Amino acid sequence: MRNVLIGQATFGADVLKGLLAKGHAVVGVFCPPDRGGKPDPLKEAAQAANLRVFQPRHLRDQEAYDRMVSLKPDLAVLAFVTDIAPAKFLAVPKLGAICYHPSILPKYRGSSAINWAVINGETRTGLTIFWVDEGIDTGDILLQKEVEIGPEETTGELYFNKLYPLGVEAVIEAVDLIAAGKAPRLPQDHSRATYDPPCDEKVAGLDWQKPGREVFHFIRGCDPQPGATTTFRGEKVKLYTARFLEEAHEKAPGEIVAVTDTGLKVAVKGGALLITRFRTKELGKVKAPDFIQARQPKAGERFGF
Q1: 257-304 residue pLDDT tens
Q2: Of 218, 242, 246, 290, which is least surrounded by CB within 10 A?
Q3: Which CATH architecture describes the domain 201-295?
Q4: CATH assignment, 2-192
């Protein structure tokens, strides 16, 4: 079976290495153009394996289509693709294309599935390998795997510790099933589908008036990107690495309850948060002691005002 891999970054590189280790033939690799400095890890891995590498500006370009046709592929494997791959391009492989998505589809379609699962306080999520069609994460399901979301786990921790390594394994397992002629195509129940916008700066503003647990989940879900955004003395500040504390108080949401050696204890409805990492334009991303030393926050001051 002639496979084409489309992807980028270390995830794409690890998928490529795994496919080659299992003896799967990869006849070509598509990855984004170089953007200065060090080349993409997928490109490096492909070159190390003496594979043909293509770096079209966009997958919708005629060049990309022509390259795909020239490879005469049986299957396209999408491993972390952020560009739009048009239907014409993905229709070239005889068996179609499969894609990794970090949620249990049809729930949490879209580019920020992990963020929103954490923001919404989910306790479980997972990944899906699906057959690509013309919709956004709407194709038939090939396989799925579930994982637990820890009570204090951030989006970054959930991805790198669980969904990344399990995802690499799942993509390789899916190709194994296709090569053996045993890969299912299970239609999604579109009536159960959810779709959220990208979790970016447009949605990163933190609302201190929400219930404390929701504020906590929002900070976790925006960690490490885009960072939950608030203000302190009129300066934009991003918050990371928070813990929820079951504490009774009569403070206003966003008010600093205490300045400690490990972080700032901030009031929320129904408890408090211990926040231990911050980012400002001037300081960059720093631990709490550095933020405290630079800004000298005092109990009684408030974030968001």
Answers
A1: 999 999 999 999 999 999 999 999 999 999 999 999 999 999 999 999
A2: 246
A3: Roll (3.10)
A4: 3.40.50.170
